[in-house]
Amino acid sequence: MNSHPRLVREPTRTTLLPLAAGLRSAFATGYGACELGRDVLSGLVVGTVALPLSMALAIASGVPPQHGLYTAMVAGFLIAALGGSRFQVSGPTAAFVVLLAPISARFGLAGLAIVTVLAGVVLIGFGVARMGKFIEFIPYPVTTGFTSGIAVVIATLQIKDMLGLTVAHMPEHYLGRVAALARALPTTRLGDLLIGILTLALLVGLPKLTRRVPSPLVALPFAALAAWFMHRGWPSVSVATIQDRFSYVIDGVVRPGIPRVPPAFGLPWNLPGPNGGALVWSYDVVQALIGSGFAVAMLGAIESLLSAVVADGMTGNRHDPDSELIAQGVGNVVAPFFGGFAATGAIARTATNIRSGARSPIAAMVHAVFVFAAVLSFASLLGYLPMASMAALLLIVAWNMAEAKHVVRVLRIAPRSDVLVLLTCFGLTVIFDMVVAVTAGVVLAAILFMQRMAEVSGARVVGDEHPSVQLPLPKSVMLYEIAGPLFFGAAQKAMSSLRTVESGVRCVVLNLQAVPVIDATGIVNLESALERLGHARVLVILAGVQPQPREAIARAGIAEVPGRLVIRESFDAAVALARAFVVVQGSEERIAASA
Prior knowledge:
Blueprint: H1 21-28, H2 33-60, H3 65-82, E1 90-91, H4 97-128, H5 140-157, H6 159-163, H7 174-183, H8 190-209, H9 215-233, H10 242-245, E2 247-250, E3 253-256, H11 283-315, H12 321-334, E4 344-345, H13 347-355, H14 362-382, H15 387-402, H16 404-413, H17 416-431, H18 434-456, E5 458-461, E6 477-483, H19 491-495, E7 507-514, H20 520-535, E8 539-543, H21 547-555, E9 565-568, H22 571-594
Parallel strand pairs: 6-7, 7-8, 8-9
Antiparallel strand pairs: 1-4, 2-3, 5-6
């Protein structure tokens, strides 16, 4: 890996929208011919990786391969130019496959393009609202669980092309897909199986020999030559290729493979719908597309910011999450008008970009230009790539995405609650979909978090044991210490010990120094405790109230009441007041008794 400056820089913001923070950050640190040369070389390396991967991901998403290339060109260039990361590379990603494949199957390319535009609008809204930092609150077991589940689904979908199976109908749900693939196993084609195994072996073995040359750049052309020689030597053994599966129409003539033309402008809703026909609009279609658009936006936001965080860890720089979200949104809005579909930050391509010596977003922009030039130069040759080789490439992507060793380690060392969240998200992603998994995972993680906070929050009688209490307290003074945030998950437990007080207690001091925050539920529980103590004619002194609880208490109308409630910022002042109150009240009682 090439060295990078370990300076952590806050990206500078524009006055209105945080755009192009990555470029501005790169130029602010100094940018010259040397940095440009590194960016060009890195962009060429990443472009060679992105070229077959973009086609493979388009095929896995249910659309012709050229649309993956158009996505890498348009979205990849715009997101790099406008984004908040210096090293992020965006384009089609494996994480989207489980969402996009059902959409393209139901609504065709037109539906997929419309969903992408909707997702882009949502992402722009996230960025304008400065919501980039909130993505960090998604628990790690949730992201690990659904990414591992996505990897399993992607790997399963590649079995069809890897083995050359003939499947009459591929069900929408995972268990149905597994059953359909199992029934189709007798249709395995020897040629596809051999080429798939050869490609897989090269993709796994070449990086162990050298990492200077991207393994797909060697493995896929070699597999295509092997398939051609195999068919020449054994005509009865054939291998399915991209041009066997896909075709395009120019000037009314149908041609096989990938068109050797640049992406053309067109309205997304005019693209082919299901089965190549027009997309028929209805309320159900609109409802489904809007829901899918939001799901794609959420996954795109999570994936892109996770990728940017990985890049930060590798380089020591810091990205601007809001700038990145807006750029992702712009890329996803524009790409469908040029035949593209959903794009987001790609962790593997970003890591390759950094290892290849990238210095600025110009490297990712060069990668997009390279893909554009490759389509114009040798698109016809790309049609000879075997489908089994594309499936093998995605199997490697799925394996890297799953991070099986890391998941096993998390399962071994993590608390049981985190393991439960991870396994729940994994199972729901595989059996249902990512939206259900993330929703359930976040809710479950939030419930477990509240339980943990309730465990560490509570109230206890301290009395003379408190280090700030120098002299013994009078017996009629009780000192309670409340620790932890008083929020809806912990307030009831924390205040439960105040439901009853011993007889003879005239003053209760509530030490709130360790309460950083209080919410509405905490306020209600505090009011109930104050009311009970007030009925018992007990003076309550709130001590050491921090700014947020003090403001919340004031908004709730909780104010000092002579003889019932007193608020003191200082703990020592509260204890001194309690001593004085007991002395004064005792004197008054003695005077009353003597009278």
